[in-house]
Amino acid sequence: MIEGNAMSVLAILALLNAAAVATPALPFDLSARTVVATFHAEGAQLYQCKAKPGGSELVWTFREPIAALMENGETIGRHFAGPRWELDDGSVVQARMTQSMAAPTPSDIPMLKLDVIQHKGHGRLDQVTTVYRLDTHSGALQGACSTPGAFRSIPYSAEYVFAR
Asked: Do the bridges between strand 92-101 and strand 74-80 make them parallel or antiparallel, or are there none, so unpaired?
């Protein structure tokens, strides 16, 4: 019998395979990777109203994410600025974005490949070298804003795949 986490991994790999057929230029290839964990995230993308670089036009600028990481319906960690992912077992990874792929709709944040640049603590994330943000829903905010310094949060969900 396949356990819940293994089923999540299989579902993500099936999603990637389906996307690969529909989109030959898919930038994320997990075939040479070992998936360590897959977590569902529910949270918000936080934006701040700022002047566009080199101008006076105000635009919503991404500030940071905040999300609960869930496994089998239980919260087991959190995702926050850095970007960082911290599990209840004490393991933490920080990563930097190396690839981005547009999501299916403009209201969805992009799917990402992030390379881990720092580890802290010990636990399930110890050997992780890459984080993938997949199957994103909502979270995008674009366009002008009217009050400098104003904040806005947009709910989002995604699947985070941690691999080595």
From this structure: unpaired
Q: Which residues pair with 58 in a beta bridge?
A: 51
Ranges of beta strands (E only) in 7-145 are 35-51, 58-71, 74-80, 84-87, 92-101, 111-120, 130-138
Is 160:67 a contact under the CB 8 Å cutoff?
Answer: no
CA dihedral 147, 151, 157, 162 (to 10 degrees): 120
Classify 125 as helix, strand or coil. Answer: coil
User: What single letter denotes the amino acid at residue 28?
Assistant: F
126 contact partners, CB below 8 Å, separation of at least 6: 91, 119
The model's pLDDT over 63-86, given as tens digits with 9 standing for 90+, comes to: 999 999 999 999 999 999 999 999
Look up residue 87 and give its two tokens: 């599990």
Amino acid present at 112? L
- List helix spans (H) across the chain: 4-22
Whole-prediction pTM value? 0.82
pLDDT of residue 29: 85
Cis peptide before 83 (omega within 30 of 0): yes
